[in-house]
Write a structure and sequence with these properties.
Blueprint (H helix, E strand, L loop, with lengths): L8 H28 L2 H27 L14 H30 L6 H29 L2 H30 L4 H28 L5 H17 L3 E9 L4 E9 L5 H18 L4 E9 L3 H5 L8
Parallel strand pairs: 2-3
Antiparallel strand pairs: 1-2
Length: about 300
């Protein structure tokens, strides 16, 4: 079976778009901070620096994950997706800590904000663009089964939320004249995006540890029950794992005595194709053929069913 993703060009375009927009946003925020001296805008710019680094690594990971299996990597490189998601989560957490530190430092050393109008307009435009981009990346990642894009989209949305907090702080300063609103809003937004960072790290850990998602397992078992019943066979020992782009599953099929290996192989192949079709080509199934007669005797009395 080919490992090429049916939407291979779409994720690549989305990632290139994310990197280009990230660089543009960074330049705009640095300019906005330069003309205003705002601690909140500085924190937003720092988050964008981390974001560009994370997107660059995500782009590399997406390229690597699309490479076919090799002599030394028999299952391909797709699991880099989980490492990439964890790296992006760590970058979000690092950005949040840097934002809090910068805001506190600015507060303690003296607050001074100028040209609020242009600075607020630039950050508002950047936040709106990042919001649209983040939703596009998450939607595209879920549609194509690309975890790297989903993680990157969540990171872009944290940038959007940070910008929203910055704008809120600047507007409060403008209408009240109380300068501490600027660093306070920066700190609040930084604390908020910490959640997204920890969520991505959790998803990364689950993927690397082959966490069996209950919803995926329920769906797999239902499809397998239907397929096996249609072929008058039984099954057990279902296992599956996510790669970040594909779902790999293995299952033992039990055949009655008298069935030839040729016939059993034909039945197993039909079951595999039916299961894979039900997951729109995202699933790859490996079956193991066993006799139903004296099954426990063959495997030994200590055999246990992990179902």
């Amino acid at each position: 079976m080919s490992h090429d993703h049916p939407h291979g060009q779409v994720p690549s375009f989305a990632m290139r778009l994310s990197l280009a927009v990230g660089l543009l946003m960074l330049a705009g925020k640095v300019f906005a901070w330069w003309i205003t001296g705002s601690a909140a805008i500085l924190s937003d710019a720092l988050e964008s620096v981390v974001h560009v680094v994370a997107v660059a690594f995500a782009a590399f990971s997406l390229w690597l994950s699309a490479r076919p299996a090799s002599r030394r990597f028999h299952y391909g490189y797709e699991r880099i997706s989980f490492f990439s998601a964890g790296f992006e989560g760590a970058m979000i957490i690092f950005a949040a800590i840097a934002i809090i530190a910068a805001a506190i430092h600015k507060w303690l050393t003296g607050l001074q904000i100028e040209q609020l109008g242009p600075g607020t307009a630039l950050v508002t435009a950047a936040g709106a663009l990042n919001g649209a981009l983040g939703l596009y990346l998450i939607r595209t990642g879920r549609r194509t089964g690309t975890l790297i894009l989903v993680a990157n989209g969540k990171h872009v949305l944290t940038d959007c939320w940070t910008s929203a907090g910055v704008v809120t702080g600047l507007l409060l300063v403008r209408f009240t004249g109380w300068l501490p609103f600027d660093p306070i809003c920066a700190i609040i937004m930084a604390a908020n995006i910490l959640h997204s960072g920890f969520d991505l790290i959790l998803r990364s850990a689950r993927g690397l540890l082959d966490y069996a998602d209950p919803q995926t397992e329920t769906r797999l078992r239902a499809e397998l029950d239907a397929a096996a019943a249609g072929e008058c066979v039984s099954w057990h020992r279902l296992k599956f794992r996510e790669t970040g782009g594909r779902l790999l599953a293995e299952v033992h099929l039990l055949f009655p005595s008298g069935v030839t290996v040729h016939t059993a192989h034909q039945v197993a192949t039909r079951i595999e194709h039916r299961l894979e079709a039900s997951f729109q080509g995202r699933l790859e199934v490996l079956t193991h053929l066993e006799p139903s007669d004296d099954h426990d005797g063959i495997h030994g009395a200590s055999h246990t069913d992990c179902r």
